[in-house]
Amino acid sequence: MLRxxxxxxxxxxxxxxxxxxxxPMDTQDVDVTVIGAGIAGSSAAAALAADRHIALIEAEEAxxxxxxxxxxxxxxxxxxxxxxxxxxxxxxxxxEHPPRDLAEVPLMTRRLVVFLAREDQQVELAALHAEGSGLxxxxxxxxxxxxxxxxxxxxxxxxxxxxxxxxxxxxxxxGFLRQLRARGGSLALRHRxxxxxxxxxxxxxxxxxxxxxRSSVVVNAAGAWGDEVASIAGAATLGLSPCRxxxxxIDPAPYNVARWPMLVSVGHDWYARxxxxxxxxxxxxxxxxxxxxxxxxxxxxxxxxxxxxQQALDISVQRIERSWAGLRTFxxxxxxxxxxxxxxxxxxxxxxxxxxxIQTSPAAGQLVADIVTGRDPHGAAGIVGAVDPRRFHPSPxxxxxxx
Length: 403
Prior knowledge:
Blueprint: H1 8-16, E1 27-29, E2 32-35, H2 39-48, E3 54-57, E4 74-75, H3 82-96, E5 108-110, E6 113-117, H4 122-131, E7 135-137, H5 140-146, E8 157-161, E9 165-167, H6 169-182, E10 186-188, E11 193-199, E12 202-207, E13 212-215, E14 217-220, H7 226-233, E15 241-250, E16 262-265, E17 271-275, E18 279-283, E19 288-289, H8 299-312, E20 322-330, E21 337-340, E22 347-351, H9 357-373, H10 384-387
Parallel strand pairs: 1-13, 2-3, 2-14, 3-10, 6-16, 14-22
Antiparallel strand pairs: 4-9, 5-9, 6-8, 7-8, 11-12, 12-13, 15-18, 15-19, 15-20, 16-17, 17-18, 21-22
């Protein structure tokens, strides 16, 4: 829970009964203050820092602690709503040829994705083909050759996506932070936002560390805490829904899984993918709504994921080597929320990434920068309306919305 921070500035306001326009000694003047240093905030901050002075503040001791640092991401074109698929496609060239100042190691490793359909999931498979792109039917005999552990009779059909790839999440995230610093921006860890107020045309963000950041724009990239940050700032919330996603690591011996594809139930009720060449990551693809907190794995969800995987794969699980859970946060309609607040001048939303934040981060971060600076978003122009948070609060006049 975000805490309300009482500071010298607040005390001075209370003692005089008036707002303080003069800044205290520890106030930092920047163009944009970005709240939240996960993949959404770090990619947006890095893109904005190309021509703006940026402060990126984070409540935890490490950037990306709650979600980004717990993601084992794969780039999959046929994943998410239309706005996500467009941003994923726009991000692909970035992953293929990352900027030299971001990463000196590859960000991607090719990984085939195979969608398995049981007898009762043929409608879902047909929908996947109808809505997707770049998919092909793959004979079950070919799947069996790739994954010898596949149980005969589990699936009646399968589809494959050949152009998917694993993402080096840690290198990508740290790369955005390196870009931010190289472009003159700053990262402030252990700075939980406690007071967010607008005074005389500027935002004041006061943190638990006693620092105050003054800027014309605040970007809310706080993930599961996005609505809480908005409430502190006096903005209407969007109705964000943080959801738990659980994963476990098992030893798939005697199988060598290094070259296995990622296996996904077309009904989205489990998936498995190779991990560290010799292990298998298994998830029940759970999406359990809950409050924003340091979420931990649920033993029942782990057991469900293992059971569903074992219905498809003949793998004996002796023990769970490691398990974890992360938060995926969704807007009410499942699409991203990137754009100006409906009422508060200079307050910008970048939330609702769900499970798509890693694979869309290059294009999403650039979209934030383009909208904030008033530039043409080019390839993303067609989804600006779809991701605009004002769709949840459409009544205020447009004249109030620009910084």
